[in-house]
Amino acid sequence: MSALDVQDFIQQNRATAQQVETFRGYWESDKHWEARREFILRNMSDFETDRLDHLLSLSMVWANNVFMGCRYSAALLEKVKEMAEGIVVEDAPVFKTRDEIIKSQQGR
């Protein structure tokens, strides 16, 4: 689902789009929200209504990893990356671990 596909989906599914908009956190920038909204819309059909909280949690894990560099278990990251496959985040921050920084400094 590309950005255009998301817009088309929103135009054709107003009720769902309005529901999804209620999931936006007040702290989320437009860039952050648009990516997380796409994650939610792509995967919403795989979750029953009473399990949407699980989808929202997974969307936050993915967004926190992409935008803030938060780390989680390998299995969880693999799952959310698979769920987010094809979502393009332009100018996403690049994070380095402490070990990567130390290694690069030792090579000087």
TrEMBL record:
Top-level taxon of origin: Eukaryota
XRN2-binding (XTBD) domain sequence ranges: 20-108
PANTHER family named among the record's database cross-references: PARTNER OF XRN-2 PROTEIN 1 (PTHR48430:SF1)
Name of the molecule in the record: XRN2-binding (XTBD) domain-containing protein
Similarity section: Belongs to the CARF family.
Native organism: Poecilia mexicana
Classification via InterPro entries: XTBD
Entry-linked Pfam families: XTBD (PF11952)
